[in-house]
Design brief:
single chain, 138 residues, alpha+beta, Multidrug-efflux Transporter Regulator, Chain: A, Domain 2, OB fold (Dihydrolipoamide Acetyltransferase, E2P), 2 domains, 5-stranded antiparallel sheet, 3-stranded antiparallel sheet, 4 helices, 8 strands, Mop_domain
Length: 138
């Protein structure tokens, strides 16, 4: 393993997937692992390519969660709503997007219109300091 190699577990953490998924994606892309002292790793440049491909696929809406429509925001994190706290005017929406917990304050009216509840599939769009929530069609 060279200094420019990334261990499978590290690659999985960076990509937000399981180690098995890293191995499958690497094999499908023709990326050969190296094994030293029982530790499997991949070239850092290859892991970067996998991350770029994953991001491009997600941006194009090609995944198992449903298609997203076009939007100006490029930082879209797909996730699942874990908590919604509504009060008179506002709603606090907590989303788990891979390893990331995203919290957004939106109007209660918007939360009601989107039908947001625990278990709703959403995309959190991040632009500057604001996080918006949009529903995902299945």
């Amino acid at each position: 393993m060279s200094a420019r190699d990334i261990r499978v577990a590290e690659a999985a953490a960076l990509l937000g997937v399981s180690t098995d998924t890293v191995r499958r994606r690497a094999q499908a892309a023709g990326i050969e692992p190296s094994t030293t002292a029982g530790v499997t790793s991949y070239p850092a440049a290859a892991v970067a390519r996998l991350a770029t491909e994953q991001a491009a696929a997600a941006a194009a809406g090609h995944d198992q969660l449903g298609d997203l429509g076009p939007a100006s925001a490029r930082n879209r994190l797909r996730g699942i709503v874990t908590r919604v706290v509504r009060d008179g005017v506002m709603a606090q929406v907590e989303v788990q997007a891979g390893a990331f917990r995203v919290v957004s304050l939106i109007s209660r009216e918007a939360a009601d219109e989107l039908g947001l509840e625990e278990g709703s599939l959403v995309a959190a769009t991040v632009k500057a300091t604001n996080v918006g929530i949009e529903g995902i069609t299945r």
